[in-house]
Fold this sequence. Notes:
This protein is an alpha+beta fold. The chain is 30% helix and 28% strand. The protein has two domains: 9-156, no CATH class; 166-251, no CATH class. Strands 1-8-11-5-6-7-3-2 form an eight-stranded mixed sheet, with helices on one face. Strands 4-10-9 form a three-stranded mixed sheet, with no helix packed on it.
Amino acid sequence: MNKSFNSYQVKSQNLSLKDIDEASRKVLFYLSAFDNMDSDNDIIRKGAFTKSINERGPLSTSNRKIAYLRYHNWEMPIGKFLELREDENGLYAVAELGHSTLGEDALHDYKDGIIREHSIGFQYIKDKINFIEDSTIEKGGYYDIAEIKLWEGSAVTFGANEQTNVVEVGKTLSIEEKLAKSQSIALEIDLLGKAISQGKGTDERLHSLEMKLKFLTSQLVSLVNLEPFDKHSIKVDKPINTFDWSEVLNKINI
Length: 254
């Protein structure tokens, strides 16, 4: 079993936003789904969050309640959870956005469709996880998760790995896959463009959206211009270790 039981983990699932009430600043969403195998080969079972909710949930007496954050950053609380409960589908949350600049920016991002995913920060519990062998599954099986220690739930923009470089993975994509990714990026660009044009929120929010727009635009251009992949004719001029933001900013003007 290749799991770390002493470290802080994050996990994101593509679960759609259920509802948002601008007047009350309440947001309804799922933080995690049950009985669904994720990219870590984990299957979280109903009851996995019960102890955490009882000990540190919104109705607990703990002074270290499960936090509602942005990007898993403990210096970026955007509100508080009013309700955390398990139903047949997963971990259901009702949260209230705060009136701070972070909470206000998050409210605009929810309304504009910029925030559409949520992720959890948690810790595995050694005697609550079992590896089930299954030769039909990649990696030879899956991890059956009976309980985890939940620390926080976060609103995220592009999922847990939002810095993934589309161009690097795109070189192995088929034409159909590249088209699908291009359409997905184009949708993100459209949402970001509309949000920026409305000019709502703090300067920090608008700057962040502009940077993400520049980044995605560069990725879309690079993805479209990629030649068909040929493993026999790979030429590497120099290793690419980091994404060069200065080059993007110099080449793209919005």
